[in-house]
Write a structure and sequence with these properties.
This protein is an alpha+beta fold. It has two domains: 2-52 and 127-169, Hypothetical protein yqbg, CATH 1.10.3230; 55-124, no CATH class. Helix content is 29%, strand content 22%. It is built from four helices and seven strands; from the N terminus they run βααββββββαα. A five-stranded antiparallel sheet has the order 1-2-7-4-5, with no helix packed on it. Strands 3-6 form a two-stranded antiparallel ribbon. α2 packs across α3 (130-145) and α3 packs antiparallel against α4 (160-166). The chain is elongated, with a radius of gyration of 19 Å. The relative contact order is 0.22.
Length: 172
């Protein structure tokens, strides 16, 4: 699976919210803190399999079945679907309310082997529950407090507390 995405929404945590949480009242680290917000969100999204900021997802899949469950499922509608480079965007697809599963218009056996592939484009809602925001801020706080270490500008993993808080939002 090949996934490309374009973030079109704003981060779920504002710089002001984070600075209040951290009790930071100066501006010298604003760029660093902004980068840490993005890094923490990306880690939370990767762990949970959900999008916490509005983004357009474009995926290409070679191996798929008649029913295909989309990654980053929090979206309202699919804007574009191509199968073997044929546009099926005007077709009606059944999309499950929870897992956001596409019901493709024909079975896999009828798909040509030449240029085979599924292309889907959709936009996520970018919903971010408060508990997820707090988990991200906990991760940022720990990284910020330990910023003298080698990876000071990059968050490489979530904290144990953050994993525990995020577990309920993991897409199964």
């Amino acid at each position: 699976m090949d996934i490309k995405y374009s973030e079109i929404g704003t981060e779920p945590i504002t710089l002001s919210e984070l600075k209040t949480y951290l009790k930071v009242d100066f501006d010298e680290d604003d760029t660093l803190l902004g980068d840490m917000i993005t890094a923490a969100r990306e880690l939370a999204e990767e762990f949970c399999g959900r999008s916490f900021v509005v983004k357009t997802i474009e995926l290409t899949e070679i191996d798929y079945d008649e029913k295909y469950t989309l990654p980053f499922p929090d979206h309202d509608e699919v804007s574009e679907v191509k199968i073997n480079d044929v546009d099926y965007s005007d077709s009606t697809f059944i999309i499950g309310s929870v897992e956001k599963t596409l019901q493709l218009p024909f079975t896999v056996e009828t798909i040509s082997e030449d240029n085979a592939g599924l292309y889907v484009k959709y936009t996520t809602k970018g919903t971010c529950p408060k508990a997820v925001k707090i988990a991200m801020m906990k991760t940022i706080a720990e990284a910020y407090d330990n910023r003298g270490n080698a990876n000071e500008e990059n968050l490489t993993e979530l904290t144990e507390n953050s994993y525990a808080m995020l577990w309920r939002y993991v897409r199964t």
